[in-house]
Amino acid sequence: MSDTSAIVILIAAIFTNNILLSNFLGMCSFIACSSQVGTALGLGTAVTFVMTMTTMINYSVYYFLLVPLKLVHLQFIVFIAVIAAFVQLVEMIVERFSPKLYFSLGIFLPLITVNCAILGASLFAIIRNYTFIQTIGFGFGAGLGWLVAIVLMAGLQQKMRYSDIPQPFKGVSVAMIITCVMAMAFMGFAGMVTIQ
Amino acid sequence: MIYLSAALVFGGLVAVLALGLIVAERFLVNYGICKLDINAGEKPLEVEGGRTLLSALYSNEIFIPSACGGKGSCGHCKITVDSGGGPVLPTETPYLTRTEVRSNIRLACQVKVREDIFVKIPSDLLNVRMFEAEVEYIRELTHDIKEVRFKLPESDEIVQRPGQYVQVQAPSLEGPVFRAYSISSPSYDTNAVELMVRLVPGGIGSTYIHNLQEGDPVTFTGPYGEFYLNDDPSVEIVCVGGGCGMAPMKNIIYSIYDKHPDRVCWLFFGCRTVKDIFYLDEYRALAEKHPNFHVIYALSDELTDGDEWEGETGFIHLSVDKYLEAGVVRQAFLCGPPPMIEAVMRVLEDKGLVEQDIFYDKF
Questions:
Q1: Which residues of chain A make contact with B10, given a CB cutoff of 8 A?
Q2: Does this model's pTM top 0.80?
Q3: Residue B308 lies in a domain
Q4: Residue A81 and residue B29: Cβ atoms within 8 Å?
Q5: In the structure, what pLDDT confidence band is assigned to residue A2 with cuts at 50, 70 and 90?
Q6: Same domain, B59 and B120
Q7: Is this complex's ipTM strictly greater than 0.85?
Q8: In terms of residue numbers, what domain contains B80?
Q9: Is B94 domain-assigned?
């Protein structure tokens, strides 16, 4: 993958290989926090920030610490520790500068720690043998892709608030159906760029 | 070797991350010392930023009523925050009406002190203190109601009005919580506080109090409550209670007859069965001394064989309707379950009482 530019990877991570809509990672907070655009935007920004930073740190930790010391098998636990520390930091920042967002995100802010999309992004960067610059592009792009998906979803949910949905489809079921339709729509971008 | 290096690398990494977080915390969570202004300069305080308004006030010995211990689940700690409180948080909105939000009412346990903050607290609440007392006695009134008397140290005294309540600190798994109980001892009894507590199965406060023994230390804050008894002796007082709604009534009645031996006062008390009756003999003795004191107890359940009861039967509002004449200037105090309060309110309004003269405590 060394020949693909970081910009291409960034765009691909948003549209063609959207981490949520093509890999279905980070679904729990996506379903739970997508009833209002404001909250979704806040959570999406937090996820983007955490994802960009943690893919960079995890990349450095992997190639400059784990590989030379032959401790590659530690990657999961180390990545999770880095992510956990980072989420703590983000929590402090959000509480300080936007208490309202802090309370509306509630439990989902600390739960970014166990958001599989974040760990997934770090692992994809390693598996796909990205360079450091490409990793930055991928981390940022994957975060933005998640943000785009959750904000679109929140917009749709707001539009649907007064729709007459049949009883068995209310709540999570209709959210899953919408996600599915959105994923199919995003498949339309597939011809643009591809990354593996 | 590989295990050692794995442990060392992971340990070292976690240590570096923890250090980074500690440094970040120093800069991000440090709000410095903030000014806390109460009632526009009446009581300026300086508190450490970053804590909740409730705990900041608490550590300065200003006790805002709160039952849940600051978890934002009781909605009792409402105070006016004029500025410095930030936006109303989603955790507060379920407990605030629109009017309250417009007049800057906030839950003190949810507002964090981040900058200089200006609050308004009723002067009554500024007089609230914390008391350390000892259980003088505890006795059974009925099968599920106990009367307990907390004796203050000799040098201490509590100044309370009839109808006010205290909050007793009870231990729970998640730290101390407070539960409110009306004061049943008359206001001239300044060295002690008596309460009547009905055992609620699984209840934190009532279980704690029911298990107290003589001599046990207790902590409570008070007195709270904005009820003022009408001091004009020509105004009749009507007390209607059910269950342990007797507590404030006892305080009102004894306080009245200490000052005005000839004042007219009606006590209506609703019970289910004969075994729920308590205090009737004491009140009958009081009524003999003060002819203008009228005691009416009514039993709502059907009498069973062997019950000795010559008093009223049926729900208590029927007795109120039967005994009170319309068109007399009265003040009424009701304490009991919501359906009882609603029924009695209707009867009292028919008798010519206006809403402002009817006070009630639903539980």
A1: 74, 77-78, 81
A2: no
A3: yes
A4: no
A5: low
A6: yes
A7: no
A8: 33-124
A9: yes
